[in-house]
């Protein structure tokens, strides 16, 4: 009692305790656990959207990549064609090639190009490169000796013309107007692109020749214009020959 007397006011009446605050003195209610993750319906919806985007976008991505490779090949062909014309203007006739020799190696030796012919479509150069024949000029005549076969590599060749169908002539004949063979006995310079996919072969033809001198589909041979090739094999590949010049 002595301890509590100091809490008693002067008038002797005890002050009632303050009312409890809201929520105080009441039993607490259990909180509902927060819901995490997605429902099954939401998951199915997300997967459906991803599938639709994949169907629409993925083919366009691959088409863009293919188009970029073909565009790069056209640029490389145009550049090497200019170098061939420079060589002909400086040295006259262009020598013929064998299985081991390449005109692009000749242009490199003559200082008319900075590197071997290379394109982003078809078989890519081996590493290290397969050494071709060595070119040298003797008494005004260029000749190549030694080296290994270049048959598996994209390259530049020069051969004597024949009258075979362009798609089977291996660069020795073209029908630039879709009908007429090259003059008999002429020297024909071509870019050879090994193991090109059927779709890229057709795209290259359409880029350089236009639709009029291109095959109707990518499953058949192309005999007209500057770009020719045999029907693609079972793996969908073909070797493409591109006309550069003839003398």
List the helices and strands and how they pair.
Layout lengths: L39 H52 L11 H7 L24 E5 L2 E5 L9 E6 L26 E11 H12 L17 E3 L7 E10 L1
Antiparallel strand pairs: 1-2, 3-4, 4-6, 5-6
Helix pairs in contact: 1-3
Describe this structure in words.
- The protein has 247 residues and is an alpha+beta fold.
- It has one domain.
- It has three helices and six strands.
- It has helices at 40-91, 103-109, 198-209, and strands at residues 134-138, 141-145, 155-160, 187-197, 227-229, 237-246.
- The strands form two sheets. A four-stranded antiparallel beta sheet has the order 3-4-6-5.
- Strand 1 (134-138) and strand 2 form a beta hairpin.
- Helix 1 packs across helix 3.
- It is elongated, with a radius of gyration of 39 Å.
Any descriptors?
247 residues, alpha+beta, two-stranded antiparallel ribbon, 3 helices
| Shape by Cα distribution | elongated
- Succession of helices and strands: HHEEEEHEE
Give the number of DSSP strands. 6
Number of helical regions: 3
Concise overview:
This protein is α+β, with helices and mostly antiparallel strands and 247 residues long. Helix content is 29%, strand content 16%.
